[in-house]
Each structure stands twice: as structure tokens, then as C-alpha cells.
Amino acid sequence: MTKRNKVKICIVMTAAVCIVALILLQTLYKYRKNDESGIPDAVSSSYDGRECRLIVTANSSEIEDREQFAREVFRMCRENSFRTIKLSTDIQGWPERLDITVYFHRRDIGEKESAMRIRFVPPDDGETYDIKSNPGAYEILIE
Fold first, then answer.
1. What is the per-residue pLDDT across 65-118, written as a single tens digit (0 to 9) for each?
2. Do 110 and 43 contact (CB within 8 A), yes or no?
3. Rounded to whole angstroms, how far apart are CA atoms 143 and 137?
4. Burial classification of residue 103, based on how many CB atoms lie within 10 Å of its CB (0-12 exposed, 13-18 middle, 19 or more buried)
5. Strand order across the beta sheet in which 51-57 lies
6. How far is C-alpha 33 from the chain's CA centre?
7. pLDDT digits 0-9 by tens, 16-60
8. What is the pTM of this model?
9. What is the SS3 assignment for the chain?
10. Closest by Cα among 105, 94, 100 to 128
């Protein structure tokens, strides 16, 4: 192999390593940015009759005002505005109850205790409620 070919191979290899490094750094930056954004996100949902169970990440290291956080999550449920998942309302309709387990970060799920649990419960007056049509009727229970 000539010296010129060796130089070309070295340049190509260096460029390839730089491109891979940039892609990795960009991916890590996006992950870290989303993980500390402070914007709640639902990462899992399941329905049990008319109750919806959610796992939500706070994407923050702390929750300063738990009631305000709970109201924000409730608003995001009603608007179906989570980034990762969308609630399926076309078959079962909007849920009557919400049971939400909150973790600080996605990496905490299954590894650490939950940060809090939020339940949205309608009045027990025999009427039928759903979170979309009757948001003001719900009681917020924070544990």
C-alpha cells in the first residue's frame, strides 16, 4: 500500500469516528434534555373498565407543588397531550376515574419507589362522569 492510500484510509476512518461520536452525543443530549424538561409525560396506560391507570414521569428531580403538578397531569389527560403516548378514547370513551403513579424519571420505573400517586375520583352520587365532560366534579387524592 502506498503512503497516499494509507493517508486516505486514515482520513476516512477519522471522519467515520467523528460522525459516530456526533450522533451519539446528539442522542444523549436529546435524552438528557427530555429527561430534565420538567414536562410530565405518560409512559404507560391501561384500562380496567372505566378506570385508566397511568404511569407518568415528572421529568424532574423534584416536584415542588404536588397539587399543581396533579392538576397539570389531569389537564394533559383531558387534552390527551402527552408526548409519548395518547389515550385511546375511541372504543371505551373517556375514563371515569384516573389512577396515576408518578416517577421522577423514566429510569426510576421499577428501580425506585414512586414519587407520588394521584387519583381523580368522581362524586359518588349515582351519576355517570368522565374526565373530559366533567373535570370540575372530580376530587383529587394525592398520596
1. 999 999 999 999 999 999 999 988 888 889 999 999 999 999 899 999 999 999
2. no
3. 20
4. buried
5. 41-48, 51-57, 97-103, 116-121, 139-142
6. 13
7. 888 887 887 776 666 555 556 789 999 999 998 889 999 999 999
8. 0.74
9. CCHHHHHHHHHHHHHHHHHHHHHHHHHHHHHHHHHCCCCCEEEEEEEECCEEEEEEECCCCCCCCHHHHHHHHHHHHHHCCCCCCCCCCCCCCCCCEEEEEEECCHHHCCCCCCCEEEEEECCCCCCCCCCCCCHHHCEEEEC
10. 94
7, amino acid identity = V
78: cell is: 383531558
- Contact 60/108 with Cβ under 8 angstroms? no
